């Protein structure tokens, strides 16, 4: 999250070191309790090939997302208007400025 200036993706920040980036609906779309998330693995040199396989197996064994919510994910990702992100960022920045 960047309040001012341009943000960079984690993949842009690292050329040689693998990066794991975690995200989810609860925090980005402000829907606590939905418990749907993801891990993005940026690994230019395939150094985490074993980690990738382990993460896949782990997710298949212990995670069980809500099927109804899972079906909504493509629509949420594709059709959330930019104004939502802009308004959310404005509100979060105002709260951060108040506290900081």
Order of helices and strands: HEHEHHH
Number of strands: 2
Shape: globular
Radius of gyration: 16 Å
pLDDT < 50 stretches: none
Structural class designation: alpha+beta
Helix content: 40-55%
**Tally of helical segments:** 5
Strand order of the largest sheet: 1-2
Major sheet characteristics:
2 strands, antiparallel
**Average predicted local confidence, pLDDT:** 85
End-to-end gap = 16 Å
> Approximately what portion of the residues adopt beta-strand conformation?
5-15%
Task: Provide the fold topology.
Blueprint: H1 10-13, E1 19-24, H2 25-28, E2 37-42, H3 49-62, H4 67-79, H5 82-99
Antiparallel strand pairs: 1-2
Describe this structure in words.
There is one protein chain. The protein is of the alpha+beta class. It is 53% helix and 12% strand. The protein has five helices and two strands, in the order H-E-H-E-H-H-H. It has a two-stranded antiparallel sheet. The longest helix has 18 residues, at 82-99. The model has no long low-confidence stretch (mean pLDDT 85).
